[in-house]
Amino acid sequence: MAEQALTGYKKWMEGVGEQGVFFSRFFRNIFTGGFEWSEFVRQCYEIGYKSFMLVGLTSFIMGLVLILQLRPSMVDMGAESMLPKTLAVSFIREMGPVITAIICAGKIASSIGAELGSMKVTEQIDAMEVSGANPMQYLVVTRILATTIMVPILALMGDVIGLFGGFLALNFTDDISFSLYFHKCISSLEFIDFLPALVKTMFFGFAIGFVGCYKGFHSDKGTESVGLAANSAVVTASLWIFVIDAFAVQVTSILFYR
Amino acid sequence: MEEQVKHNGEQKRTPNEVVVDIEHISKSFGDNEVLKDISLKVKRGENVVVLGKSGQGKSVTIQCIVGLLNPDEGVVKVFGDVVADMGDKQLKALRTKVGFLFQSGALYDSMTVRENLEFPLTRVLKMKDKAEIDQRVEEVLEGVGLLDAIDKMPSDLSGGMRKRVGLARTMIVKPEIMLYDEPTTGLDPITSREISELILNMQKKYKTSSIIITHDMECAKITGDRVVIMNDGEYIAEGSFDELQSSDDELVRSFFNETT
Question: Which intervals hold domain ABC transporter (chain B) (predicted)?
Answer without folding.
Answer: 20-257
